[in-house]
Write a structure and sequence with these properties.
Length: 164
């Protein structure tokens, strides 16, 4: 008996592990050997690449792309149309599948809509990425960053409220 929900229009490849209480909505694709924890939500039109790891209690909004090499810890929020990269210098004529670069998103991180997270960085616990940001460097715990490129604009608490 399944103890998670997958909409009939979604594709779940072989070897995917999905935790209890997780919901995967319309037209999403979860690629082989990915792991999704308990009580997480994958919105409509999402792409989850091979071997991606998503923790418990994560909320991934509509049209998010998470590619091979990305690890999301527990309690991560990803706003709509956010994209992660996995290659620093992509070229269509060069196969770089063995060169994917790991990106780690620690527990409690929030990423605003339409952000791009460049591979090879760490977003540390409870940091907050403002909408539309291009994140090219590591972000420290509780830092509020936004812009292109994203820069530190302040600090937030665990609830995401800006500290004065």
């Amino acid at each position: 008996m399944k103890d998670f929900f997958v909409h009939s229009t979604s594709i779940i490849d072989e070897g995917v592990k999905i935790g209890k209480g997780t919901k995967i909505w319309h037209w999403s694709h979860v690629s082989k050997n990915s792991k999704i924890g308990k009580n997480s939500t994958i919105g409509q039109g999402c792409f989850i690449g091979n071997n991606v790891k998503i923790g418990n209690n994560c909320k991934i909004q509509n049209h998010v792309s998470i590619f091979d090499g990305v690890i999301l810890e527990d309690g991560v929020f990803i706003g709509p149309s956010t994209t992660f990269t996995n290659v620093k210098n992509p070229r269509s004529h060069i196969n770089q599948k063995k060169k994917y670069i790991k990106t780690v998103v620690k527990k409690g991180v929030s990423i605003g809509a339409n952000s791009t997270i460049v591979c090879g960085i760490k977003l540390d616990e409870f940091c907050f990425i403002g909408a539309g940001s291009v994140v090219t460097k590591n972000v420290k715990k509780y830092n509020l960053v936004y812009g292109n490129p994203a820069r530190v604009k302040g600090l937030v608490d665990k609830k995401g409220k800006k500290k004065l």
